[in-house]
Every structure is written in structure tokens, then in C-alpha cells.
Amino acid sequence: MRRRLAALSVDTCVVAGFVALGRNSHSEGEAISDIAIVAAPFLIGLAVGWVACRHTDHPAGMRIGLVVWASTVVIGLTLRGLVFSRPTPPVFILVAGTFLALTLLGWRAVWAVARRRIARIGAAADLSAP
User: Fold this and answer.
1) What is the pLDDT of residues 102-112, one digit of tens each?
2) pLDDT given at position 128
3) What is the C-alpha separation between 96 and 90, in angstroms, rounded?
4) Closest Cα to residue 60, out of 117, 2, 99?
5) Burial of 34 (0-12, 13-18, 19+ CB in 10 A)
6) What is the DSSP letter of 27?
7) Do the Cβ atoms of 67 and 52 come closer than 8 Å?
8) What was the pLDDT predicted at 129?
9) Bigger pLDDT: 43 vs 24
10) Which of 14, 33, 119, 126 is the right S-S partner for 103, CB 3.0 to 4.6 Å?
11) What pTM was estimated for this model as a whole?
12) Helix, strand, or coil (residue 58)
């Protein structure tokens, strides 16, 4: 449960960071309420992805990351345009998809490499122990 909550927290921070960076780069303000409103469709998409993957034993795995990324982007962009009445130009689709892929999948890739290295170091330490 702790690993799932940690992975969900990192994903949520990624989405919030994406929105905060975007709003800042367009000088749209940094009020928490404004960020929450703009982040809402993407957070809903993130939640749908997590619900779809709720039975996994590896919440930081790349497969889960792909599902979470796809649902965050597809549902987030759809809701942004249809429900939240915000324009969704093609370049924004490209930027959102790329940024969220790099971050939602990127932290998982770094985590996987770190886990492998830690396991390798641990195995080497076990071999050298008396």
C-alpha cells in the first residue's frame, strides 16, 4: 500500500508541476486555486488510470506508467476541451503528451535503474560477507 501511495503521489506532483510550469510560462498566475482548476481534467485522467491499474503489485512499473500516461493525456485533453471549455490546440496536445510521457515514465525508469543497482550492490555485499 505504501508503494502505491508513493507512486500515486509522485504522479500527482508531476501533473501539478506540468500545470504550474505551463501557467507560469504563459504568465497566467500561480494561485493554487487556478492551478487546481486547470489541473482538474488531467488529475481526473490520472485517477482513471490508477483505478484501471488498482490490482497491480508494481505501481512504479513501466506498464502501469504507460496506462497512467495514456489515460492522463487522452482523458485530460478530452475533458479540457469538452467539459472545461478550454482550447486544445494541436501544439498543446504535443507538448502535454511529450512532457507527461517524459515525466510519468521518466521517474519510473530512474526508479527501475536505481532498484537494479541497489540489488546488485546488495548481492555483491552478500557474497563478500564472511
Assistant:
1) 999 999 999 99
2) 52
3) 10
4) 2
5) middle
6) T
7) yes
8) 44
9) 43
10) 14
11) 0.86
12) coil
Q: Which tens digit of pLDDT belongs to each residue from 35-92?
A: 888 899 999 999 999 999 988 888 899 999 999 999 999 999 999 999 988 888 999 9
Give the C-alpha separation, 19 to 96, whole Å: 9
69: DSSP letter = H
Give how many domains the chain has, as a whole number: 1
* pLDDT at residue 130 is higher than 70: no
Determine the pLDDT at residue 68. 97
Range of the domain at 81: 2-128
C-alpha to C-alpha distance for 41 and 85, rounded to whole angstroms: 11
C-alpha closest to that of 83 among 130, 44, 31, 41: 41
User: C-alpha cell of 15?
Assistant: 501533473
The Cα diameter of the chain in Å comes to 66
Of residues 100, 125, 115, the one with CA closest to residue 41: 100
- Is residue 44 within 8 A of residue 68, CB to CB? The reply is no
Using CA atoms, how far apart are residues 55 and 30, in angstroms rounded to an integer? 36
